[in-house]
Amino acid sequence: MKQQVPPRCSPPRRGGEQIPFARPWITDVERDAVLGVLKGHILTHGPQCKAFEAEFAAFLGVPASGGAAHCVSTSSCMAALHLAYLHFGLGPGDEVIVPAQTHTATAHAVEWVRARPVFADCDPKTGNLTAKRVEAALTSKTKAISVVHFLGIPCDMPAIMEVARRRRLWVVEDCALAVGSRFDGVHAGLFGDAGCFSFYPVKHITTGEGGMFVSRHEGVAQAVSRLRAFGVDRTHAERSVPGMYDVPGLGLNYRLSELQAALGRAQLGRVTENLDRRRKNFAVLKAGLSKVKDVRVLDSHDARAKNSHYCLEVVLEGPLSKRRGEIVAALNARGVGTSIYYPQPVPRMAYYRKKYGYSPGSFQHAEKISDCGIALPVGPHIETGDMPRIVDEFKAAVKEAS
Length: 402
Ligand SMILES: Cc1ncc(COP(=O)(O)O)c(C=O)c1O
Fold this sequence. Notes:
The protein is α/β, with parallel strands linked by helices. It has 13 helices and 13 strands. It folds into two domains: about 240 residues, Type I PLP-dependent aspartate aminotransferase-like (Major domain) (Aspartate Aminotransferase, domain 2, 3-Layer(aba) Sandwich); about 130 residues, Aspartate Aminotransferase, domain 1 (Alpha-Beta Complex). The N and C termini lie far apart (about 50 Å). The site of pyridoxal-5'-phosphate has 14 residues, from α3 and α4.
């Protein structure tokens, strides 16, 4: 795709202006790309999706095992996760190790194939699953490991892959928050058997709704590509007679449209600048909060891990841990948008609690992050020069709430 210098997304936010937690970074490049598709007549099954898949694969680079990344655009990250478990043939009686500290989509995808999610607690410093915790959750029924790179902090994938290899388990990486996250130079999603990305509006890049299934195995990507489009045996381009195809197996309609793919390509054209802004914003915020008592910041603690800074998560300790509601309210009143990742560890959500039971304290680190964490904004919608304001407002909010 032709690279263009993007116009600025918006004037810098100064003084008392609102700073949203996240805002899609949409410019005339995106508007022109979507209008360009509308000026034509191909709205699905077209060249934009193909190009987006190829460009995303080029951005990801080389998998841990060598070779190339193979990408299949999907209607969401959850769709990509569902396709992964369907393709790997998981079903009743199978167990998948799932981090407690994640979005409910990570576990729902396992439930939809009628397998059982077996939840594991996270590392308190990163919010991530570790090889040790995976080992502790293994049973004779374990068939797969679901890994989430929490808030862009990459998991130690070589260690997790070692367990998977020993036990011959599928590994599905949930990369919903991990565009740009790398471990030892390899992009998240390219260690396991499948990687699933999200392009929901608050994510690193957006297509409105949308996702990408990624695999280092070409055959897996090809099969998933068919599964994503009703299970038909040939694409539009492969049909010698229009409308003629056969259906060798079941499938779904989890496709991305051409409009969304065009939007994604425009976003991808600016992803390096986007990640750079996030990195700088995160650094200023982290340094500014480093001396605030009873506040700790989640980040990678391994020189091989490259965080992609989805947001900056603070976890409140000591007396502050009881004051999250007040601090969030004070921050919001001061114009700083926040979010919570996630409102509950998944096993404590009503559906899972009722189905599998739950005893308080069984996922103590995930509970701590869910109950005492505040996600602060670092996205490209904020000028780095404005980040000290978030530090000041945070300190003031803490003082007010104490
Ligand atoms: C870790 C994780 N996985 C999956 C999803 C679902 O993504 P999507 O909305 O693209 O299905 C989310 C959404 O925030 C997420 O945070």
